[in-house]
Amino acid sequence: MSTQNNDKRTLLVETALDLFYRQGIHAVGINEVLKVSGVAKKTLYNHFSSKEALIVATVEQRDQRFQAWLNKRLGKVAAGRATIEAIFIAVDDWINERDPALGPFRGCFFINTSAEYSDGACEIFQCCQRHKQSIRAVLYQHALVALGEEAAARRLADSLGLLKEGAIVAGHLMGDKQAAVKARETARRLMGLG
Questions:
Q1: How far is the C-alpha of 78 from the C-alpha of 164, rounded, in Å?
Q2: Most exposed: 62, 151, 169, 188, by fewest CB within 10 Å?
């Protein structure tokens, strides 16, 4: 694939991701993506067989961006409890728009997208699910370092995952800008730190 083709594909994905995150996927038609991106319809369909294929690409792009952001944030702290706390600090910064890497906070793109595509057999839903599973795996890794026992680490990771997701939803849906701070306090208690 030529660099120009690759650039057009990237432009389409980035434009669609921005529009989908701001307005919702069902609210944005292909023509709006084309208008905002300035890319021809033929070029779009050279890269994506359908709107659903474009949506999958946006979910994958957001996953890559989120993973890179989280890895950068977590790379600064020791494994285990410190990293778990750092996850909640990062979520707090995201909710309160103190870290521009993820753009303006409009809730979780994966939660929002999976709500619009809720069929478990749907590829879009499954992409969102894989993202959440990968974040849960990070929590498990650090819970295992913190606790040293697999069953206890699995239980802690499950609880931490629920806290993180709840903080994101409360931050967006309820406008609770302190949701991640509250979740971090609960996480500290679960880890025996508070």
A1: 19
A2: 151
